[in-house]
Automatic annotation (TrEMBL):
Pfam (any one): adh_short
UniProt family annotation: Belongs to the short-chain dehydrogenases/reductases (SDR) family.
Domain of life: Bacteria
InterPro entries reported in the protein's UniProt record: NAD(P)-bd_dom_sf (IPR036291), SDR_fam (IPR002347)
Name of this chain's protein: Short-chain dehydrogenase/reductase SDR
Gene3D superfamilies: NAD(P)-binding Rossmann-like Domain (3.40.50.720)
Lineage of origin: Bacteria, Bacillati, Cyanobacteriota, Cyanophyceae, Nostocales
GO terms of molecular function: oxidoreductase activity, acting on the CH-OH group of donors, NAD or NADP as acceptor
């Protein structure tokens, strides 16, 4: 088992949901945190709630879709924060649930640019340092949607299938190095996910979880922390987890 105390962990999409839960879990384990998100005020609130000293947390306002911003953020890290041990590519979203032939182009671009290109940008700029130092772990947050397509999921499912393939390809490319690669792929998790998907329609978002007990951000963070703390020779390639009330991307048990 690896002691991650004082390891530097970069979490994207850290302002809410799974990202914020990861910040909490890794902070409790003694890690130093680089928290990145678009909503800087939310990051500041999160950092304050964690009660960490200034030398234990570093905040970055970052839109992962902006390649030049990602490059600048990584290359301009203070020396004491530059040797990233764990990268958690958590930033991601879903927009809409339209049929493909009725889809919104802007929704498509936002999902592709965030879920695929943003993950690629962070990986491309962080992993070379890991290889050079001979240590590191990339943890990508995928989805059951990357394994099973569902009606209306078309482009979102495509982006998460890409995350699955990218994770597998990265693991193959890093063979011969000690760098580990993990994809954590949840089913239904009650975060801001559905509100974002439905453009702030809270009533519609709440219906997604009606009558069942979904996973929480803390549940996912617990699994991510488990993956990160295994013995150095152990690589957990992929984890698929769902609530007990879910059996597939489309099959759920709802109480009346």
């Amino acid at each position: 088992m690896i002691d991650i105390k004082n390891q530097i962990v970069l979490i994207t999409g850290a302002s809410s949901g799974i990202g914020a839960a990861c910040a909490q879990g890794f902070a409790q384990a003694g890690a130093k945190l680089i928290l990145a998100a678009r909503r800087f005020e939310r990051l500041q609130d999160l950092a304050a709630s964690l009660g960490l000293a200034a030398d234990r947390v570093h905040l970055i306002q970052l839109d992962v879709r902006d390649r030049s911003a990602v490059e600048s953020a990584i290359s301009n890290l203070p020396t004491s924060w530059s040797e990233i041990d764990i990268l958690i590519n958590n930033a991601g979203l879903s927009r809409g649930l339209d049929k493909l032939h009725q889809g919104d182009f802007q929704d498509w671009e936002e999902m592709i640019d965030t879920n695929i290109k943003g993950l690629l940008y962070l990986t491309r700029y962080v992993v070379p340092g890991m290889v050079k130092r001979g240590r590191g772990h990339v943890i990508n947050i995928g989805s059951i949607a990357g394994h099973q397509t569902y009606p209306g999921g078309n482009v979102y499912c495509g982006t998460k299938a890409a995350v699955k393939a990218i994770s597998e390809g990265l693991k193959q490319d890093l063979l011969g190095t000690p760098i580990r690669v993990t994809s954590v792929d949840p089913g239904m998790v009650e975060t801001e996910f559905s509100q974002v998907r439905f453009h702030g329609d809270t009533n519609r978002a709440n219906q997604v979880y009606r009558g069942l007990k979904p996973l929480t951000g803390e549940d996912i963070a617990d699994v991510i922390l488990f993956c990160a703390t295994r013995s150095p020779h152990v690589n957990i390639n992929e984890v698929i987890l769902m609530p007990v009330d879910q059996a597939s991307a489309t099959l759920v048990n709802r109480q009346p």
